[in-house]
Each structure stands twice: as C-alpha cells, then as structure tokens.
C-alpha cells in the first residue's frame, strides 16, 4: 500500500490515548492506529448506507420484525 504523509492536529487527550495504544501494542504506530480508525468509520458509513437503502426499498421494520432481529442477535452474541 502506498501511503501519503500528512500532518493532522488532535486534542491532547486523544493523542495521549493513541500513543498509549501504541505502547501497549494495540497498534504498530500512530499512523496505523488512525488508518484503522478511518477504515472502521468507512465500514460504519457503508453499513449505514446499506440500511438506509433497505429502508427506502422495503420500509421501516415493524415490531414483529424488530423482535425477530433482537432474538437472532441475542442468540448470535451468546455464541
């Protein structure tokens, strides 16, 4: 992957948390941490787009459909 070098400004507390994550081995570098955060944001925005498109196409889920989804998600989270 080709990377471009840029300069960004972060509030001191955010930078402190990022550097702590790097020291604890949760990221290889500050750049890697930020790249991961941006990729996660992209995934979330993508999912939001899919959900919005589904609602436009099929309408909002009703109570019965929401209850079904909660049951399925609860089962999946229990493993």
Can you describe what's shown?
This protein has one domain. Helices cover 72% and strands 0% of the residues. The chain has three helices and no strands. The protein has helices at residues 12-23, 30-58, 63-78. The radius of gyration is 19 Å and the shape is elongated. The relative contact order is 0.06. The mean pLDDT is 95.
Structure summarized in a few sentences:
The protein is an all-alpha fold and 79 residues long. It has one domain (12-78). The protein has 3 helices and no strands.
Helix and strand arrangement:
Blueprint: H1 12-23, H2 30-58, H3 63-78
Number of helices: 3
What characteristic shape results from the CA principal axes?
A: elongated
* Percent of residues in beta strands: under 5%
| Helix percent band | over 70%
| Average pLDDT reading | 95
Q: Which structural class matches the secondary elements?
A: mainly alpha
Largest sheet: none
Low-confidence stretches: none
Number of strands: 0
The CA-CA distance between the termini, in Å, is 35 Å
């Amino acid at each position: 992957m080709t990377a471009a070098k840029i300069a960004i400004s972060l509030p001191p507390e955010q930078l402190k948390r990022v550097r702590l994550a790097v020291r604890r081995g949760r990221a290889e570098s500050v750049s890697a941490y930020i790249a991961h955060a941006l990729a996660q944001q992209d995934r979330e925005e993508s999912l939001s787009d899919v959900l919005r498109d589904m609602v436009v196409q099929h309408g909002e889920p009703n109570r019965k459909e929401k209850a079904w989804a909660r049951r399925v998600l609860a089962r999946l989270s229990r493993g």
